[in-house]
Amino acid sequence: MARHRNTADEPEAGPWPAVPQQSYRDAMSRVGAAVNVVTTDGPGGRAGFTASAVCSVTDTPPTLLVCLNRGSSVSAAFAGNGVLCVNTLAAEHQPLSALFGGRTPMDERFAAADWTEATTGAPVLVGAVASFDCRVVRTAEVGTHAVLFCEVVGLTQGTVHEGLIYFGRRYHKVHAEQASA
Ligand SMILES: NC(=O)C1=CN([C@@H]2O[C@H](COP(=O)(O)OP(=O)(O)OC[C@H]3O[C@@H](n4cnc5c(N)ncnc54)[C@H](O)[C@@H]3O)[C@@H](O)[C@H]2O)C=CC1
Ligand SMILES: Cc1cc2nc3c(=O)[nH]c(=O)nc-3n(C[C@H](O)[C@H](O)[C@H](O)COP(=O)(O)O)c2cc1C
């Protein structure tokens, strides 16, 4: 019979050995993902970070999840604002991904690109492949991370043809024949 945990809230102590953290990361490095800069603004302050742990949960209502390390410097701002914008990066944004990937002061991160303001007040990256303006409707704490369930309340679809994928600890450009493809 398959062994599994019931829910993240009710972990069972399994008989199987723990997977070493480095082995898990090495395996995950082989899972390609889109690169996003997730932004927020409001009473908790303006903040943004690079995220590959983003995925679509359901289209009814349109909902994304974003996994945010609770130990990161941006964590308090996201908790305080309750809104965010997922900006999916285009190929030209590779340097921006590095800037928003940590250890850079927030003003320097935002100074490196052009932004508009979403309905929620979160910064929208000009030239993103797509931007998803969201309100956070639920948060689950799992290990080191907060899983933010985000209802999409607004969309911006870009016209760029080159997307950005993170795979094998490196960035790769991907080309779509048509922006809407
Ligand atoms: N989900 C996350 O929190 C992610 C964090 N990162 C962070 O960015 C930096 C560079 O990452 P890489 O160059 O890809 O090398 P890496 O060896 O640190 O990570 C390889 C892969 O493991 C996963 N991973 C790494 N740290 C994780 C974490 N704390 N929680 C959940 N999954 C994690 C990601 O899928 C990542 O692409 C590291 O500091 C890493 O922790 C990168 C990707 C995802
Ligand atoms: C390609 C890439 C993907 C990342 N994905 C995530 C992610 O999904 N979740 C996360 O919490 N951190 C992720 N990080 C790390 C955060 O971007 C980083 O910790 C964040 O900028 C906060 O850093 P700070 O504490 O120095 O401000 C990623 C970093 C890179 C370079």
Describe the structure.
The chain is mostly beta strands and 181 residues long. The chain has a single domain (33-175), classed as Electron Transport, Fmn-binding Protein, Chain A (Pnp Oxidase, Chain A). Helices cover 15% and strands 42% of the residues. The chain contains four helices and twelve strands, in the order H-E-E-E-E-E-H-E-H-H-E-E-E-E-E-E. The strands form three sheets. The chain has a seven-stranded antiparallel beta sheet with strand order 3-2-6-9-10-5-4. Strands 1-11-12 form a three-stranded antiparallel beta sheet, with no helix packed on it. Strands 7-8 form a two-stranded antiparallel sheet. The chain starts with 20 loop residues before the first helix and ends in a 6-residue tail after the last strand. Mean pLDDT is 92; it is low at 1-6. It binds 1,4-dihydronicotinamide adenine dinucleotide and flavin mononucleotide. The site of 1,4-dihydronicotinamide adenine dinucleotide (NAI) has 10 residues, from helix 1 and strand 5. Residues 35, 49-53, 67-69, 72-74, 97, 100-103, 166 line the site of flavin mononucleotide (FMN).
